[in-house]
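Reproducibility note. Readers wishing to regenerate the assembly model reported in the main text can use the exact inputs given here. Chain order matters: entities are listed in the order in which they were concatenated for prediction.
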Amino acid sequence: MARVLLENLTKAFGKLVAVNNVNLEVRDKEFVTLLGPSGCGKTTTLRMIAGLERPDSGNIYIGDTLVNELTPADRDIAMTFQSFALYPHKTVYENLAFPLKKSKMSAGDLDKRVKEVAGMLRITHLMHSKPTTLSGGEKQRLALGRAIVRRPKVFLLDEPLTNLDARLRADMRAELKKLQKELGQTAILTTPDELEAMTMADRIAVIEQGELLQFDAPETLYGHPGDLSVASLLGRPPMNLIECTLEEEGKRSFLDAGAFKRDVSDIQDLVKAHATTSDLILGIRPSDIFLRKERISVDDIQSEVLALEPMDEETVVDLRVGDHLLKATVSRASSIDVGEKLWMTYDGRKAHLFDKKTRQTIS
Amino acid sequence: MSKWISNTISYVILVIAAVLTLAPIGWAALTSFKERTDILVLKPLLVFQPTLRNYIVLFANEPPYYLWHVRVANSLFVCLITVAVCLLMSSLAAYSFSRFDFWGSKSLPPFILSFRMIPPVCFLLPWYLIFLDLHLLDNPLSLILVYSIFTIPFDTWMLRGFFLAIPRDLDEAALTEGYSRLEILFKIVFPLAKSGIMITTIFSFIFIFYEFMYAVVLTKLNWMTAPVALSRFLSAYATEWGPMMAATMTITIPLVIIMIVLRKHVITGLTLGAVK
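Running the prediction on these inputs yields the following structure tokens for the assembly.
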């Protein structure tokens, strides 16, 4: 049983609160990503789990053991560092063997294990080279190897892919995921890249400024973000955020966004119950916006194409709607010209409403 | 064209500087192989019949009993013990200073270094009196203590600089793998700081071995060190230049050879320290 439980974890560096009362449980064999921008506290959290930093308050459990007072060595964890932290004066073989020298393995078993891990990561041919001669990908695999070789309870990976080039990153994402499933080990990874998090994790913990915003599976986070930050974090291009005000006319309610209004009478009770103010933000994902050349319904909104950004399979269309600048995605096949005036509509069921002040999701 | 000229000028200057620096040593070397008659001439002699008599006399068990080998042994004894002890203590301190964040981790190193900046002569009389009371005169312990006081600050400062250049990530990786800080110091930091340690050792060795002032004050006949014994060649009666030059050669040439052999490390160590 190798679950990790964080209870009310807090750490401050002087006046800066890096980790603020984080509660998190990682299940056995789960692959969890700590997602957040640089400096948000995810690395500090990881280091506290590893034992390299002491929390100011809170508890950390690995398995069922309270590990607050244990040294990193006693916690049965392995960590990879963003800089790989390979021992430059040792060969690849010695790098892999070094962690095992501390265990009570016999020389023969040690040798077998090292060769096994090297084979798994396809670096057997480099056994006698020094780390400085390796390519980025090979260094990464060696760093992973050093962590794997001890078969610890939990893997901690600190931004493992940040130092690799884009092509390699894509390959390594798949390989890491495969490796984790193969070894069946609990893994916690930190990254500022939401694409990495979305593709690799079973669950993602979104952290901002030391606070855990949401901890869910990727699809849940994408479809039901609890917070404005989470919503705008996931998805490329990011969610369109339109400021609007809630207006009541008799028994009906409208969202007034300047250039258009939307009848929200059907959810007005829900909105009134959760909103603290009438200043709201409407969130629409670019993929939920539809553009047509003719007006089909009364709800369609006039928009003007400002620019086109062709991507791999889709084109991002920059639209101006009244005072708002929105992005929509259409298939490559569509023929749209810059300056064209199109009619826009969006899938209201998939839209999100946020309270402007508290940034919490209302629906 | 100008590149060619500037290169030539550089080489000319370097050659002149080299000649000026090495000439006295070369002359001493030549003198050490000359018979006394060849030394005490009015015009300097470059061509002569070489002899090893000067060297033999240093170690011989006959008058004037130079006992040069004893003196060198004394110096080496004091030197090696001091260097070893200081290196050990300094590396522990330097490791702490370079890795841990505690009160004084930034302010103490320069403070410690300031002890090295005090002119050693200031403490000469006080320490002489103290060692006199402790009956430690003509005892290697007094020299070791005094030299340690001046070497540890220097060693700590230098080693801290070299240790800082080694990324902390390596320490932390080893920590998660089950190694203690002490093991990390010996198995990871030392191998990676080899050049720095070497240069620190060489510098402190040179300082201690050739030190004269405290050696002459704190030792008498039994524990006389090599530099002091060297000075005694220059007596009021008759200075035996031949043996004196031979003695000088014996304690200079080995060091030069070591420096040449280790020159790669020396250069790395010096330049790395400069970038700090």
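We highlight two features of this model. The interface with chain B takes residues 50-52, 71-73, 77-79, 81, 83-85, 87-89, 98-99, 102-103, 146, 150 of chain A (CB under 8 Å). The radius of gyration of chain A is 25 Å.
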